[in-house]
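re: that complex we talked abt at group meeting.

here r the seqs, copy pasted straight from the sheet so there may be weird spacing, ignore it
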Amino acid sequence: MLDCIIIGSGAAGVSAALTLRANGKSFMLFGSAALSEKISKAERIRNYMGLPNISGEDFCKAVQAQLVEAEITITQEKVSGVYALGDKFGVATQEGGYYESASVILGCGVESVKQIEGETEFVGRGVSYCATCDGFLYKGKTIAVLCTSKRLEHEIGHLCSFADKVYLIAMYKDVEMGDEKVEIIRKMPLKLEGEKRVDKVVFADKTLPVDGVFVLRESVAPTVLVGGLRVENGHIVTTRNMQTNIEGCFAAGDCTGRPYQYAKAAGEGNIAAHAVCAYLSEQKKKA
Amino acid sequence: MLDCIIIGSGAAGVSAALTLRANGKSFMLFGSAALSEKISKAERIRNYMGLPNISGEDFCKAVQAQLVEAEITITQEKVSGVYALGDKFGVATQEGGYYESASVILGCGVESVKQIEGETEFVGRGVSYCATCDGFLYKGKTIAVLCTSKRLEHEIGHLCSFADKVYLIAMYKDVEMGDEKVEIIRKMPLKLEGEKRVDKVVFADKTLPVDGVFVLRESVAPTVLVGGLRVENGHIVTTRNMQTNIEGCFAAGDCTGRPYQYAKAAGEGNIAAHAVCAYLSEQKKKA
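got the structure back, here u go
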């Protein structure tokens, strides 16, 4: 069994991985080979100690090279659920993968695009976060897809292979969806409506009837990811040691609160990794 | 009045300074042009995100260049006391300087050399931390000097200009004190003894009679620096926001606890700087 699974390849996850590696721990790092869209798109980072006035792109390149040097690979699967199973954790991915570890570090970021009114209410009743898992349910149907990142476009492509009509509510630039089925909408909806299931997306100026709504964000809300996780005002609550309310489950970076800064996230990732090492040796003593 | 005074030029202090600068705040950064002995002497730093496998020396050079670029200068005075004066702080230095600021960030590190038994007991009664302040009191006398860093040797030189006999208990390599008055000792004393004032330094194999003891460390204990500061197990207690128990006084880096890591210190410096910004705007609203 792995010592740890790190979820998220932003500054927190990468820093945690480097520190676990330096401490000889076994782990998997889930995320994107591109690391973090927030980092790579940053124009200039002016206050990260050691890398003066660097562009987000160059920052990413430096970190990617460092990961290669440290022989850390990123598992590019989207984590769909984290399950606390007594003295271990199970981590499932949208791609159908399942992994186990003694501890977990959540570095899943925060979503800059707010939840839509009705979104949480209709989860599992027409609202889905996983094109791969639920796309086939909408064969011949009309769906709306709220997508926050160009990197998730391939999932829309997957949905197009089932649905007849796709309203793409695109929260990113340079949309490249040539499919005839796709109608691009550039406004945020006000809310989702329906009786038992969602059946309407309501905008300020119109209402679209739909059979389902897919919400594709870079990060999944931590409470959706980990059942029972304590969250306040959208941020995971941790101790100074980065421990969450769930034993063996730590969190670091933007998901734990402001400031949303690389240095802060990297620092917390470092602390979380050290806390994992301490946790593992305690568990060993108990066994 | 300055927005902030940062005490300590290690990773925490530097990171805080870069962030305050990026936020347009006025501040002074107290420390050493060489930044931090702990950093510069590190052989390899393997887990600092963005700077793979870098030597402590190169790390220091990178940070020094960054400070120059950001037009941040380090005030090379040793802070001897921080005083909470209602809605502002007064900061005094051993060199006789006095400065005021609306807030303070303590990035003063932790002392790796432990306190000697009796040290705290005899502070002000023969034990001094300041050669410049108290050296003249020992004209023609015999003193012991516990010194933890080569960088503080010039202070021993100052003491030699007064004292007749100096026992130098050197906790560092490459001692270069040619003065005839100086007798170098390579062992840690067990304790300090005396009646009203300290008058003996006790070693395992001998006892030296002295008129005074100077303890020259890179960092001053935070409780000596700031009266009333809440400290537990040698570490300053802070919230997740790096706020100490004293309003307007924040802390970051090794002085707040383990892990003693650059990433952690830089991250906390960043958080503390943001907390200072929030604190300043709250104070403005109140005024």
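couple things i noticed - The domain at 127-216 of chain B is CATH 3.50.50.60 (FAD/NAD(P)-binding domain). Residues 242 and 272 of chain B are 5 Å apart (CA to CA).
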